[in-house]
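Appendix B. One record, verbatim.
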Amino acid sequence: MFKRIYDWIDFRLGIRETFMPMLRHPVPREIAGPLGWWYVFGSASLTLFLIQILTGIGLALTYVPSADQAYESLLYLNYQQPWGWFLRSLHYWSSSAMVVLVLVHMTQVFLHGSYKYPRELTWLVGVLLLLCTLGMAFTGQVLRWDPDAYWGVGVGASMAGRVPEAGPTIVDLLLGGAIIGGDTLSRFFALHVFVIPGALMFFLAIHLWLILKRGISAPPKAGARVDPATYDSEYERDTHEHGVPFNAEPILKDIIFSALVVIAVVGIAAVAGPKGPSAPPDPTLPGANPRPDWPFLWLFALLALSPPSAETVIMLILPVALILALLAVPLISNRGERAPSRRPVAVLLVIFIYTTLGALTHLGHTAPWSPVMTAWSSDPIPTELIASKERTLSPLQLQGAVVFQNKQCRNCHSLDSIGGKRGPDLTHVGQRMTTDQLIDQVSNGTPGGGNMPAYGKQISPAEMTALVDFLTQLVPLGAAPARTPTQDVP
């Protein structure tokens, strides 16, 4: 009965007529042998993407993308919704595994020289797929809506904000306003659920089409050089005379490896459980130690360990340079040797890149975050800034000093060179900024998505008044506080 139904549908849709030739297309004979196991990473990545879609649909039924309910909806999934924790865990770990397998797949393609003629465009689309995969990972972290998410968006906005001319516009588009809030979460939800998956599926369709049209490259052989003048005829002859159909042993290897990957991911998800959320997204939360997910720890470590003067280069130039370098690979070398044994520079380059990324990722796990996260509790405000023969603070200013300490401003800002170095030293901030400027800075953060996030929603009006009153009196002894030009007009 089912066969009759299938035949009825197939007669009208032409399923077998359309897809069977694709499945039967010939591939190099070597792929049917042991060397064929090098070709299974792409299909396993596709399998994990399908798991991402299925688990993502399940999570979207419960997740609420609003600033005041996102965190609670994740807690509901973790502790109340039956199997909700497993769904979240499977979504996270399949995402991590997908990043790993896409990187492994691209590394294999690079080492085997499979990006060379006539598969340059296949590589270029693969780079776009890698960027989409990383974009899915980053936006997924933001949806956890915890301190990691808050600071992750802050760093991302800071990077975008440094783009010349267009920076503030990009930040406003990204955040949906001047501060990180509900509009920000809505935009990242749309990116994670609609925009990036849509782009990923579009590029994936092109990628698969290119594989069908240009074929799967044979395993590299030392001495077998790629010559665009003769490659097409030689590949056509070899695959049609000696090749094997894809839906024989090659697809069996894909199925076996993908099944093993799925079993491993399900096992890890069941044992390790979901990631976060760690705490509500409050940047003033005591003890917060935000870190990005592992795919971005290398960049986090680079930013944390580099001097502030290098931030712009790392944030703006480095990512663009890396992407352009990846895109340029098939344009620089699209012919010649493919075998790794004849391409020592390519092998050394892969070893160098993965050693560097591994070391930075390790440092991202272990190195303290650039701001001094214990400064607020371990370093008291210097006594001479509170009470001395020359300086006596009012009760309101003393209250502001307490707010300054309790809100952990010293994690990023130092007083008398003691405290965090991420932000400027505030010992004499009262000489640089007026009351209005300080209120605006604390409320809205650095304009254009700079380092300092907006604290307007994390501080009460009374605390703001006291804090700013304390800061405005931080001037050198005998010096006048900052004034606006209109204040000097008689």
